[in-house]
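Justification of computing resources. Each target in the renewal requires a structure prediction run like the one illustrated here; the chain below, 217 residues long, is used simply to show the kind of job we budget for.
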Amino acid sequence: MTDRPTAVAPAGWGGVTAGLSWTLAAGQRFKRGVMVDLRAFEPTKSEDRDMITLYAQPNNIDAIGFSFQSADEFFDKSRRHQDRFGQPVEEFEIQFIDGEELDAELAKVIGLNQANFADFLTCAEDWDTDQKARVIIAVGEGGYAFDPKVDPDSYDIDLYELDSLRELAELFIDEGLFGDIPERLSCYLDYDAIARDLSFDYCEITLGGTNLIYRLS
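Resulting structure tokens:
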């Protein structure tokens, strides 16, 4: 038998909640990936995206840096790069200088550097908006290590595109996630109190100009 998640009755409801069931009905489990599909908010084809431009800043103060848009371009330029004394330059600080906001946020949370920039460029090209958001949340908020081999959809994240936790409370009530509430009691519902309770499990984040509410298991 599959366990069914239980919703916590908000403290502010008092006697109004007496006798109501707060167990999610069968078939109403929180499902990973079904709350919001961010693919609708950003282009997914590489030709529709702004090309990412990175900058290689030499750790050598006697050398100047260069911009690049692919790993091949970096390796081609870095092999021939020299400082003003003709010495080869091998170590660079990699900086994100142009591209979409979500890609910039991804570069930030993974700690873009010379060792991982090639994986970053591949992932930014291959992942869609929803997958990038999940990795940003998992790595930036959940403490996961960035691993390009991990499927972003494997992270156990409930994700909603909503403006506030109050809207999440209203959504849960509308979808019956707290059970059937008699219409005569609906006017007594304290959505702000429900939102405060939800804040123990759910957080807000803005990515690429879109406000998201998530729960990371």
